[in-house]
Amino acid sequence: MDDAAADPDPLTAALRDTPPPAVQALPPQLRERLATQVRAGRARQRRLGEEAVASALKGVPLPVRGLVRKAIG
Amino acid sequence: MSDRMSEQSLQTRRIARLLGVESTDLDYLRDVPEDELKVLHDQVARAVFAGGEKRMAKVAGLSRSIPAPLAGRLAERFLPPLVAARVAELLEPERARDLVGRVSVPYLADLAVALDPVRSRPVVRAIPPQRIGEVAGELFARGEHALMAEFVTSVERPALEAALAVASPRDLLTVLPLLEWTDDVEHVVEHLPVARVREIAAALTPSELADLVVVLGPSRCEPLLEAVDDATVAAVGAQLVGRRDDADLETIGSLAWLLSDDQLERVTALVDDDSLVWLEGR
Fold this sequence. Notes:
The complex is a heterodimer. Chain A has helices at residues 3-6, 10-15, 21-24, 28-59, 62-72. By secondary structure, chain A is an all-alpha fold. The model of chain A has no long low-confidence stretch (mean pLDDT 81). Chain B is mainly α. Chain B is elongated and about 70 Å long. The interface between A and B is medium-sized, with 33 and 37 residues.
């Protein structure tokens, strides 16, 4: 789901939590900027995670790779 | 203050590390109080590492069904550190404790780089101090000082002692300014063995010792100054005065009270008249 669409405040949506008061008090464009950085950070971690899982599966012997893929979803 | 010690907020640097950006990209957070930045750091950590838990929980489940010796070997052979890190965060601390003894130190260091410092806290706390020391040695060798600093609040005192014990004097000089100054850090620094303090003092230049004095502050640097000769103390004092940085000068102002008359005389001989005002009151 798009974080920005899920919550009117993009930073609260990106953090999935209410930011501390002084952060919440930043101008909207700076809160938006931080929200964008958080979303980019999460996307980066997800991408790295996907690449790592793919690489892990490549290392599993072929006869059981399907089973392992099924097991970890 | 030298280039080694950035003026940027510690917490801002921690957040930048999580986000994979330069800390200058977060300059707009400069007016946010440090305690609120700390809360923000943990929120960012949870947000950035969120997702994929279901799949990683299944991998963790698989690892539980395999005998530990085999699980360790299989993990190191097939699980990239990033995946292993996500899985490790979901393991019971006891199981993690068992597994970390069965994989290599370089693999553990790779895994540590990928860990979420908030979520991994219970698992990291379960790791024996000796193993923490071994991994810390590997991370220091790789120059991962910011990462080491990140985990200071995750480990308990014996593990912190083990980690700092393997740091070279220059590692300490690099990592100490990055540390959140917790009670445990305070205790470990305060109780450094005399031989260790002497080793640090002997390895660093007067300029580096001056950096360390600023980081430690006047109340903690007395053992360090006792470990060097009068000429070195004078050179350190002159370094601090010569830099004309407010933080350094405040330190030398307080430090002046720790110096003997002879040491103070040596400092005043090394600095210009304009700088002497900072030693007034002695």
